[in-house]
Amino acid sequence: MVRARVGHFVEAQILKAIGVNYIDESEAIALVDEDNFINKNKFRCPFFCGYENLGEALSRVREGAAMTAEVVFCV
User: Fold this and answer.
1) Cβ atoms of 63 and 39 closer than 8 Å
2) Gap between the Cα atoms of 15 and 19, Å rounded
3) I want to staple 11 with a disulfide (CB 3.0 to 4.6 A). Which of 4, 35, 41, 66 is the partner?
4) pLDDT (tens digit, 9 = 90+) per residue, 6-28?
5) CA-to-CA distance for 51 and 20, rounded, in angstroms?
């Protein structure tokens, strides 16, 4: 599993091309851009995405995420 920054679809295309098994569109390595998540339906490689509530989880699945996991932020 390799992380790609949120919204950086070219990174995801490169990762897919080199044959990674999962892509994590991670909010841990970039600020979240709520309007520009990667359209995961265009990729055959499964995506793993975090969420903070059920609505966000359903949104990531609708975008094409294969798996989701709850994200807990410590401040």
Assistant:
1) yes
2) 6
3) 4
4) 778 888 889 889 988 888 876 66
5) 22
CA 22 to mean position of chain CA atoms: 10
Max Cα distance, the chain (Å): 36
R_g over Cα of the chain? 11
The CA distance from 57 to 46, in Å, is 15
pTM for the model: 0.64
- CA distances 72 to 14, 27, 36, 53, Å, are 29, 11, 22, 10
Say which residue the tokens 């975008």 belong to.
63
- Using DSSP, state whether 51 is helix, strand or coil: strand
